[in-house]
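Is magnesium ion placement plausible here? Inputs below.
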Amino acid sequence: MSIWDKLWGRRAPTSRQMARERLQLVLVHDRTRISPQLLQTLKNEIIEVISRHVDIDREGVEVTFTQSQRQSRLVADIPLQGGRSKSAG
Amino acid sequence: MAARILTITSGKGGVGKTTATANLGVALALQGQRVVTIDADIGLRNLDVVMGLENRIVYDLVDVVEGRCRLRQAMIRDKRLSELYLLPAAQTRDKTAVSPEDMVQVTEQLRPEFDYILIDSPAGIEQGFKNAIAPADVILIITTPEVSAVRDADRIIGLIEAEGKESAHLIINRLRPDMVRREDMLATSDVVELLAIDLIGIVPEDEYIIISTNRGRPAALDDHSPAGQAFRNIARRIMGEDVPFLAIRESPGLLERLTRLVRSRTKSGG
Ligand SMILES: Nc1ncnc2c1ncn2[C@@H]1O[C@H](COP(=O)(O)OP(=O)(O)O)[C@@H](O)[C@H]1O
Ligand SMILES: [Mg+2]
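Reply from A.M.:
I modeled the complex. Tokens:
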């Protein structure tokens, strides 16, 4: 975002930005063959496995893709609840 | 010296494969190279009309493959450039009339006599596409700055990687800098970042392309056509020259920013 946009507050996304964001998602799904549904399933199961051992903030869990060059990565961001493990508490 | 084989492909139809093949053929011939263009779009012959050679076709690629004529008999010499030839596609047959092995055989026969062999690929990812890329040393992927075209280009890049072809370059066609500046079109940087392959050319939207197609005289022959200039630059890059990209201004200048600002403020004000 340019300095002008920042100075005058954020406006609705431009069609270029929308095209870019939509493409990014479509390409990730095409390349990895991971559909949005499968991604949701993965997220649910990750939450289940982790929360068996650690208290986590279920609502805050995010499972997303990152790309560097043509390599895709699945990234799970899992906020911990209180920061202590179950066995310790 | 043996020819390099370049295949121009895209996935999506109508993004400029045939236009690029004709213009790069002309542009390379203008550089003194011996060039043959091959129309691999069997059943939807088009390269002949874009090059303005449609009246001189006697035999075609399928006649060669099926042994009805010698290769040389099917090749049409360009009227304007004596080192430029076209091998036309058949119009009345379908893609299955030619196999990838046939394409390799035909191009191997041509290799010793030319510097460049350009293959115009059909749209899609089926047999016609496979025929077109089978003999390629270099693949030029062409896209427009649109979501669907870029998506198809990405699919093609994946398929080419799976085939073990190493060398692929990107051409962005029909770019409209004015629209990019208004934030209404994907910029070159967006497309290059998303596809993550090497960029070899940016061709602007240019009404001269339509006029030149009407006349059967590729725009690369015309000094005044911006797209023609872009294709001539790509040809030089293909030959290994380090040619700077055309100065296509994609980011807004101060005046444009101010007008946009005023416009958006008056809009939100009422
Ligand atoms: N840079 C350009 N500016 C304007 N029109 C273009 C440009 N490139 C291609 N076109 C037009 O787009 C259409 C499709 O081009 P074509 O080369 O036939 O695509 P393809 O072979 O990929 O199907 C044609 O009408 C052509 O004249
Ligand atoms: Mg075509």
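Short version: Residues 13 and 80 of chain A are 32 Å apart (CA to CA).
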